[in-house]
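Hi there, hope your week has been kind to you so far. Do you reckon you could talk me through the fold, stretch by stretch? I've dropped the whole record in just underneath, so have a look:
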Amino acid sequence: MTGEVVSAEDGLPDIVIGSGGFRIDHTVGLVWRLAELLERGNGSDVTLRLETVGTDEVRVIRGHTLVLALQSPIFEEMLRNRNATSSGSNTLVIRESADTVGVFDRFIRYLYCGEISVRLDQAVTMHRLATKYNVSVLRQGLSQYMSENLAGDPPGSRVVSWYLYAEQSGDEALRESCLQYLTWNLSSVLRSREWAGVSAPLLLTLLQRSDLVLQSELELFEALEAWLERQDPDGLTAENALRSIRYAMMAPRDLFRLQRESRVLQRYGESVRDLLYMSYQFHSASPLQLAKFFDVNCSLFTPRNYLASAWGSPWVINNPARDDRSASFQTQLGPSGHDAGKRVTWNALFSPRWLPFSLRPPFSEQGAMQPPPRLEAGRPRVIITPATSSADMAGVSFQKTLLVVMKRHGRMVVRHVYNFHQSTEESSAFLAGADLQNRASEYLTNGSLHLHIIVKPLYQSLIATKK
């Protein structure tokens, strides 16, 4: 017999017989017995006296030194210190806040059984206990659980508070997950109540990034203005935040309106006067002329990932595993007002089984490459190329960004971002692990793949900048 399972009377797997012998597996029964040991307190050699801070509430848990010390280095130290300082007392006093007391029983049970059920509203509390008592495996599991559930209802309803908590607790993995979510889904966060609670350091961190995904720079300025009016920070923080806005990415008509109507610019306008002046010059002169005097590659002249139609297009691909698809769209030639009226037409090709260059057949004797076969082993690829070329495109490089949007808790959120120049083949991780054949795949929404293509034109410094 190979792979045959012989069951015990209770229906649990006892022995698995295979070609290499047999394996006895009673782990489930062992977990049950450990849970029973905790519940009944049999053989208990320590009493946990759990006191709630600020109240007279006291709970008692009968525990076992071996289990507690084995699972938690902090418990091990507390028990060792108790033995060194007490005279035969088997009571360990623990003082916790009301919220942690509410989940403490389940935390202790995890130490015995290795499994736990946690709701989202309890995740931070349980993570705090795992951190305090240095139960690293539980902490990592909770961090992963929280990272996979950042898309709240409404959007952005928990990610800011979880980011601040991750900073306080020193959980770098959770902090990075929250920062990535904020970066890729900033528009929804800007419209949430959590935006008002963003700390000044987090705000400045976000404003420095070029990979923010949002509707427009104007949207970011208006959200910053609301934050400044609500928080009323010190002058240096306000000025640093305002100087991180990329005014050159706004149309001149919007800049004129803001200078006339914005209360924040009326208060701090002097601190950004030079940036506004450079932005007006950026829109009035040709990039070639501007490059003679300014560094056109600085952040002021670098677009972020804007969702507005001038910068790209959404693309919904139904039944993406079926065959190749194509689409076309237009973007403005460049962010400068000098180029804003000029358009570039782009052709996009999606292939669910594109063959990598290394596996393609060689060129034929006539010099033409044979068309690659569509093998099942091929991987999904998106190729974006201009439909035409013109002299206006000289001195402009185009960075492509592809967003993969998925549904989480009934909301569409950006879960993956890929940057490339022509083809996602430049990114070996594109849709890695995505099962496009499975309509229930997490990458698909109602059987469709939701993408958003962004084209970021960047001016090149063809002429050395004058010092």
